[in-house]
Amino acid sequence: MNAPRGKAGRLRLLVAALAVGCAVACFAYDARAQAADAKRVALLTLALVGLAAGLAFPRSRERSLAVRGSRVSWAALAGVAFVGWSALSVLWGQTGPALLELTPWCAALGIALAGAALGTQAAQRSAELAAWLVGILGSAWLIGAWLAGERGFFLHAGQGNPNWAGLLLAIAWPLARPSRAKWRAARWATRAVAAAWGLALVLCGSRVGLCAAGIGLVVAAWTAQAPLRAHYLTCLSMLALAFALTLAFAGKTSTRNESAANASANERGPHELPAPRSEGKQSAASSLAGRLWIQQISARAALANAPWGAGLGHFSSAFLSSQGRALDALSPQQAARRFSNATTAHNDWLQVALESGLPGLGLFCAALGFSLRAQLRSGWAAGSGSLAAFALASFGDSPLYLPAPTLLLGLVFGALPREGHALTVSPTTGLGLRVLLLAACASLLPPSLAAWLATRARSAASLAAPAQRARLLEKSARLTPGAWESAFELGLLRLESGHAEAAARELERAASLGAGLAALLALGNAEIECGKPERAITAFRAALALNRGSARAHLGLSEALREGSALGEAEEHARTALRLLPGDTRARELLDAIIEQRADHDLGL
Fold this sequence. Notes:
Blueprint: H1 2-26, H2 35-56, E1 70-73, H3 74-88, H4 95-116, H5 120-147, H6 162-172, H7 184-204, H8 207-223, H9 226-265, H10 280-304, H11 315-327, H12 332-338, H13 348-378, H14 381-396, H15 403-414, E2 422-425, H16 427-461, H17 466-479, H18 485-496, H19 500-512, H20 517-529, H21 533-546, H22 551-563, H23 567-580, H24 585-602
Antiparallel strand pairs: 1-2
Helix pairs in contact: 1-2, 1-5, 2-4, 2-16, 3-4, 3-13, 4-15, 4-16, 5-6, 5-7, 5-15, 6-7, 6-8, 6-14, 7-9, 8-9, 8-14, 10-11, 10-13, 13-14, 16-17, 17-18, 18-19, 18-20, 19-20, 20-21, 20-22, 21-22, 22-23, 23-24
């Protein structure tokens, strides 16, 4: 009698350990680094521990993929193939950023295998417990920060961005199935957490997260049996109530502001301008227009790089090139308003198609599609709702490229049922997959840790004296030689201190690593300081190829052309810069100097 009880106790302990580890990894945060840096290291560490434990204790593989005659779902195979193909696309992408993007996916696969080793039901309980912990911790963080006076961007719950916090809560909420406890206190505690969850989602201000949470809860309620359906409908009502109260409060605030503006209008003179009105709807419309523009350019870039894609980590450069070609058809003024320095497509399907091509997009669709079908057939409402929320959020944002939502996706994949259409694998194949994934996670841990330390060094450099700042930036550049951030900041520091030659070298390296428009503009200025107008002209023309509405590029090119004695073209670009920046004194003075110089040249002086 003691052996079964001891085995069940150990299983419950493993379920709780995996859930707590995942929750801790979701909220790992370092204020002196990027939000994803600490999470990548935490995810890889958790995956390494889980995979190593599975290899060290062979008896724990009784329920795992390595068991003889084990049946692996097509969804799991598609997920492994997607990560493998994405890793292969690194060969024609950018190695540095690609390794960081590959890190959460490999870690999620490792966590999925660790969950699968516990068995389907135990993996489901672990995923549900992790979702509860994520919801409770995230809601407490957000509501506590709001009560402490934080607003706007600071309501990020350790995710680095309020929208990303909303995505995490939206994907976790349907996954948090309530316990079967019949205590009244437990039921009321569940309702209280649901109310806090809805309020936290509203505080994030993530429209995509709100929609994803609503769809996920609807799918979970449709899949669940009668007792659980009532829980999901309660969660939906809590979300709707929190959203309605927020809109009502915002409406009252807007009404008070409008009344105050009208009262003050009676006291203004006839020539005074009216006070600006609330632009909440306009900001929402402009945000949607910006997203649609980014997604349109991403789709063009994906078609231009079809069928194999631009390579993992190559999104920014491919997007800027495609956007530059689209902006060529617009006037400089229109291009200046349309230009966007997007780092993601805000649509995972488009970004996967751009980076990994048609094979990657097909495998990603297959992984989510087969997984959703398997969860619907098995009747696991929590997994079905979470996958539906993830799929919808992927259309409006980038949860696939964020560590915390990807971790939850790995937990859901680890709980996939292995019945129905599946492939039988041998023990050797399952063991080989574990060893390969363990080696991949171990090899990705050093660059992830180096990226974390490099970001901390750059953060410390921003507050240090110039001499110490240079040493910190050089250290950051040594830690991440394939990233452009350290080279760019070091180049700017060299340029400010008067070392133009050294600045040009660093900025040229940053531009070659994909720094984009800012690095080209700074490189052009450095080349002018070095007395090399021809090289400056090349840099500024490359910047205008990305954004013909850049006033700084037109101004710099005009100055470089003036030093190269191409006065006619220099005057043309100076006038364009002045039209873009009508009140800029530098553009006005440069145009006057060029006109005077041309007049002297015509007079033979």
